[in-house]
């Protein structure tokens, strides 16, 4: 029994090389469930692993791919049986543990989530870690008590992977979405996803540097951090909330404590990697019902294992549009 994988090695200069190899199944890492992988995807983190390791990989040779979707082949875990459709995100798979850039993966069953019947393996990877993180952000705002009647929701980095799926989910749920982007040419795309208002990123970055600005947003999904997040926070209405998941503009933000202590604003930190299983399953269940999957399809391009070494530097330079789904077979 064999499987094919993009096997990565790191040279003395830290540069990573990849070759597609056929390996015996006993090379798969330890785990109680073996999955026949249908699709993986390309994320920023994958770009780091495929080019330099990004300090994320501890042992070589390595198989990358931080998420995958496929079918259970064998299972020693009572929660899964052969034929189950599953998805995996996070748990440092593709970093510390061999990942989805292979026709088979062996993992702990506790890391797997059963796919809702309405989501195919390919669509699961079109959603990927980005889309699943968007759902977690929306769930955090809902848990706070924000409803469509509360008012406008701002999404920063709206044309990016997390941002665009957040726009689509919020619009489908009936929220009024303000999509903040630095790419005016993506306005039509964001409107098609359901944004009500397209905001030029500069409206935030060039807003007055004051701890409190006029109250406007009931909630914020922030994928950017930096000045954008600081000015967004200053415009959250009394009792509102922000779900914070990204740092596209870097980790620091020049914010003030005043929105918290004068307007009772809350901030929810979103981590998709080590999130416990119950909210993970809830997020995938919700993606099956609340994400307009047909809208997502227009953002997807497809690649194979043989394309990954070429695509990796491009994602690091921001040259990839939409989501890249990787057909590993
Ligand atoms: P993308 O690169 O697809 O999107 C990021 C978007 O942010 C860009 O499209 C752009 O949006 C905007 N942006 C980029 N650089 C800047 C800048 N310097 N200033 C202002 N805006 C900027 O990334 P993803 O959507 O996949 O991820 C977004 C963030 O979320 C990343 O930081 C990622 O690491 C993080 N993330 C976190 C997760 C978690 O578990 N917490 C999980 C997944 C992702 P536009 O063109 O619209 O202006």
Provide a descriptive summary of the structure in words.
InterPro entries: Acrylyl-CoA_reductase_AcuI, ADH-like_C, ADH-like_N, ER, Zn-ADH-like_protein. This is Oxidoreductase. Residues 18-326 form the Enoyl reductase (ER) domain. Pfam families: ADH_N, ADH_zinc_N. With 329 residues, the chain is an alpha/beta fold. It has ten helices and 15 strands. A hairpin with a 5-residue loop joins strand 1 (2-10) and strand 2. It starts with a strand and ends with a strand. Bound molecules: NADPH dihydro-nicotinamide-adenine-dinucleotide phosphate. The site of NADPH dihydro-nicotinamide-adenine-dinucleotide phosphate (NDP) has 27 residues, from helix 2 and helix 3.
CATH superfamily of the largest domain: Medium-chain alcohol dehydrogenases, catalytic domain
Number of helices: 10
What is the element string, with H for helices and E for strands?
EEEHEEEEHEHEHEHEHEHEHHEHE
Q: Which spans of ≥5 residues are poorly predicted at pLDDT below 50?
A: none
How many angstroms does the end-to-end distance come to? 16 Å
- How many strand segments? 15
Domain Enoyl reductase (ER): 18-326
Protein name: Oxidoreductase
InterPro entries: Acrylyl-CoA_reductase_AcuI, ADH-like_C, ADH-like_N, ER, Zn-ADH-like_protein
């Amino acid at each position: 029994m064999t499987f094919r994988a993009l096997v990565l090695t790191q040279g003395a200069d830290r540069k990573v090389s990849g070759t597609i190899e056929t390996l015996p199944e006993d090379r798969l890492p330890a785990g109680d469930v073996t999955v026949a992988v249908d699709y993986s995807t390309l994320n920023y983190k994958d770009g780091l692993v495929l080019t330099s390791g990004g300090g994320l990989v501890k042992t070589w040779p390595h198989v990358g791919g931080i998420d995958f979707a496929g079918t259970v082949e064998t299972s020693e875990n009572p929660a899964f049986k052969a034929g189950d459709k599953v998805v995996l995100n996070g748990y440092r798979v593709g970093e510390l543990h061999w990942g989805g850039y292979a026709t088979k993966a062996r993992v702990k069953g506790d890391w797997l989530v059963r796919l809702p019947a309405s989501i195919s393996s390919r669509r699961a990877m079109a959603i990927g870690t980005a889309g699943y993180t968007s759902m977690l952000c929306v769930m955090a705002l809902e848990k706070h008590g924000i409803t469509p009647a509360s008012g406008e929701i701002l999404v920063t980095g709206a044309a990016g992977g997390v941002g665009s799926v957040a726009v689509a989910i919020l619009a489908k749920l009936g929220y009024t979405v303000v999509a903040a982007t630095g790419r005016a040419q993506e306005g039509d795309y964001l409107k098609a996803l359901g944004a009500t208002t397209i905001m030029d990123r500069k409206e935030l970055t060039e807003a007055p540097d004051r701890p409190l600005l006029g109250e406007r947003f009931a909630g914020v999904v922030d994928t950017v951090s930096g000045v954008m997040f600081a000015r967004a926070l200053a415009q959250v209405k009394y009792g509102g909330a922000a779900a914070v998941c990204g740092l596209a503009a870097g980790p620091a933000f020049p914010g003030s404590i005043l929105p918290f202590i004068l307007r009772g604003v809350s901030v929810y930190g979103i981590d998709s990697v080590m999130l416990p299983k119950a909210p993970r399953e809830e997020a995938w269940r919700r993606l099956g019902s609340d994400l307009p999957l047909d809208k997502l399809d227009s953002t997807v391009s497809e690649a194979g294992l043989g394309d990954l070494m070429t695509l990796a530097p491009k994602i690091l330079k921001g040259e990839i549009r939409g989501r890249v789904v990787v057909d590993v077979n």
